[in-house]
Amino acid sequence: MSRSSDSIVIIPTYNEKENIEKIIRAVLGLEKCFHILIIDDGSPDGTAQIVKRLMGEEFADRLFLVERSGKLGLGTAYIAGFKWALARDYQYVFEMDADFSHDPNDLPRLYAACADEGYDVAIGSRYISGVNVVNWPMGRVLMSYFASMYVRLVTGFQVHDTTAGFKCYRRRVLQTIELDKIRFKGYAFQIEMKFTAYKIGFKIKEVPVIFVNRREGTSKMSGGIFSEAFFGVMRLRWDGWTRKYPKIEK
């Protein structure tokens, strides 16, 4: 029997065969009905084949797949997913990692912040109530924490976890943001999307979550991603002074 949903969870993947079936079952097993869109960047380990099997055997009406030709960047994966969701009738669009660093049980909390409390963007925040990170090397914890402090200092944007990748957007946010003008691909993409939503005037809430470092598979983090974020923040500050942002339609 088909199960409709107002919510789609977008999960970008590259070589996530150890995690992909588990995360799909965890999300689709929640009491609240979510749909999932996997954006796979040509994973050579067979991630997409696992998704196709689950689509054919069990989740044809709730699980969807977009395959891309190679590693084209996290930001472009999400932009492709946003456009896919906007072409359909989803009212709430989520970003989530495949590796269980984001707890599927927190999805209903992000949903409630938007659907019940009236916020436009809900951020699964590691830093709104201290530092809630488990099993990360201390160097990476400090780098992530101070990166968010750096963003707040440079831009004046008062969100504690500016690089968070666990989020819920109301449909109208993604309709208003000019998605083709989003420039960045890595950490800076996450910052740019939040900053743009803030500059337009959307209401943002940080929902405290616990971030757990992946147990299986390989991290996709690289020095180039941090470099993009460092210099990208300066560009965002300049945009904040000079760019004309879209207005929220009443």
Write up what this structure looks like.
- This protein is an alpha/beta fold.
- It is built from eight helices and nine strands.
- The strands form two sheets. The protein has a seven-stranded mixed β-sheet with strand order 3-2-1-4-7-5-8, sandwiched between helices. A two-stranded parallel sheet has the order 6-9.
- Strand 2 (35-40), helix 2 (47-57) and strand 3 (63-67) form a beta-alpha-beta unit.
- Helix 5 packs parallel to helix 8 (223-242).
The average pLDDT score comes to 86
Spatial separation of the terminal alpha carbons = 37 Å
Q: Output the number of helix runs.
A: 8
Order of H and E elements: EHEHEHEHEEHEHHEEH
Share in helix = 40-55%
Count the beta strands: 9
Uncertain segments: none
> Major sheet: size, sense and barrel closure?
7 strands, mixed
Strand order of the largest sheet: 3-2-1-4-7-5-8
Strand content: 15-25%
Shape summary: globular
